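Record 1 of the preview.
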Amino acid sequence: MEVLLAILKGVPVTLGITVLAFAIGLVGGIPLVLARRSKFPPLSWLAISIIELLRGIPPVVWLFIIYFGLGTQIPQITSFMAAVIGLGVVSSAYMAEIYRGGLRSIHQGQWEAAEVLGLGRGSVYGDVIGPQVFRVSIPAAATYGIGLLKDSSVAYVIGVTEVVYYANEQSRQQIDALGPFLIAAAVYIVMTLPTAWATRKLDANMRKRVAK
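->
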């Protein structure tokens, strides 16, 4: 029980990193996907290059670059902030691809109808296309969010006091060094189950509304 309580101290930090990084991804993915869909080739290629760069480098490497790179120039960047920023920029790239998949699923007739009605670009995305993209993107975004929760464990390498950090500390103090990590695994499972359930519930409710 003592080991479990020690590991649970890292849960708020783990959830904090996940929620903040995911929020950055939700917002940051929008300009990236719009730039990628741009009819101006240089802007489109720039967006593609950024997305591939962000996704191609492992998250832990981004954490090292931000914490040991920018962190030395900007002392205000803590290990927690570095983890949020690093995972956040990576999330932006993944969410851009999820949004792109959602946009591709929208029937061409929707775009044509909006054009016939004379709607502005902002209204087309905000009132017609955006809500539909949001609905179809929920399953993929939720799956990525759950993966991000597990990926947040890499933050312990730069000293962030999350779940794996405390599990690693406890393993050094126990005869059974594996035990704390098994408990940490169970904690991650408990954290991901409610998210998966809520996602299925939200997706089902939105499908009912669309059906009406």
